[in-house]
Known about the structure:
Layout: E1 6-7, E2 13-14, H1 22-50, H2 73-89, H3 111-142, H4 150-160, H5 173-185, H6 187-196
Antiparallel strand pairs: 1-2
Helix pairs in contact: 1-2, 1-3, 2-3, 3-5, 4-6
Amino acid sequence: xxxxxVITGSGEIRSNGNFHGAPIGYVLDFLAxxxxxxxxxxxxxxxxxLDINRSMGLPAFLAFNAGVDSGLMIAQYTQASMVSExxxxxxxxxxxxxxxxxxxxxxxxxxxxxGRKLRLVINNLRRIVAIEILSATRAIDMRQPLKSSPAxxxxxxxxxxxxxxxGPDRILSQEMARVEILAISRVLRTAAETVTGPLN
Length: 200
């Protein structure tokens, strides 16, 4: 994202088109804002599943033994912390430019900073969504004998291959990581598509 020529290893000077990187920086910043919003919505859905006042009959915090076990309370804390971090990271980098080099470099795109922030936001978003999936599959178990849709049943089965169902409190970090890997690998989407067809 530079608008200066590049000198290649052979000594040739190649133009980069003399474009300014600001439009790319703007898009990267906007993507971070949109990803931040998606994570915020995901966390709110999880919070609703864990809140006995809004979960339509699910046990508090999706705990196996509510009142004794903490269930997925700490997982939701983890989500909330990443959502808050994403809100800070979603502050646009492209609005900031400081003249340097005796005012020769008077306006820069800050696109590199926007891209680095976006990578952190996306990493957090993946983990936020993984926690929602972990919570949703536990909620499905706790709704039995009610059944979910055929597509969700397929997704639930894939999650249960790597994560056990409800039980007494246990360390959740490994389970969150396993579900994140499932989501990245598109296994869950593929499972749903066996019922729904292509999800475009």
